[in-house]
Write the structure tokens for this entry.
Amino acid sequence: MTDEIPMDEGVFFDAEGKDLIDENDDGFKLIPAGLYESIIIGWKEVNSEGDEYANGDEYRGVKLSFQIIQEEGGFKNRQLGKKVFTFHSDPGKMKKSNTALATICNAVGVTKIKSPEELCSIPFRLKVVVGKADNGKEFNWVQNYLKMESPDIKADDATEKAPFE
């Protein structure tokens, strides 16, 4: 049996009597630092227009969505994301973005792409670390992208501060 949403009388959804998310639950559970077999499952275009965090920078690019596909570890289907820029007004951020995108392309074995779609559904490994924000809150951060046949590298167990992106 599935929990289908009935389409009664033109109503898409009726929230009355349904469970609500606890206001103290941010819905985010950390993944332990480590290497995870993953694929890129999608992407969307991003730009600085309307981005409250742009801080005056101008940029455009894509946000890639990664999904863990490995069975072991209990994190299958967990998703993480990464913005990569095709243009950024800050040369340092542009260089970091070029390096990240080149590393992702290398990890999936594609060197020239016409569309981010060409990166999707090809298995590779993510190196995930646990970072700590200035406010002390921990978060997951993708530190590296590796080919499936790459030798294991040690993922730092300690938390580390992620660079400003």
The longest strand covers residues 34-47.
